[in-house]
Design a protein that fits this description.
flat, mainly alpha, 3-stranded antiparallel β-sheet, Rubrerythrin, domain 2, Ferritin, 8% strand
Amino acid sequence: MKLGVQPEAGFYRRTPGSTPDNLWDAINGESYERDFMYPQMIRHATAEGQTEAVRSFTYALHAERQHVILFRQAWEGLWTGASATAYYVVPTCGATYANAPPAVCPLCGTPASRFERFN
């Protein structure tokens, strides 16, 4: 089934650049998805009564908000030397937490015992 959403492509470089450039491109891409793509998809799915799509897009929007923050922290860490030691990803909704995850994901209710840890 087609939901009728044709998002524009994000603003990505055609070839990889330096680490700071790549992180900045990632910030721009995630910001586009957070500010334009997923809100538009949620509006269309809501108007069409596609509740499962709305939930999925809402999970993705929440994850993109976190990704922007995490990529900004990584970009700033290039200059300050600060970095996270571990990341925890919620398999249900894609939420990502640095260093200390909550006991339960506030978005989907998945307990921390089910989060996947990445170093």
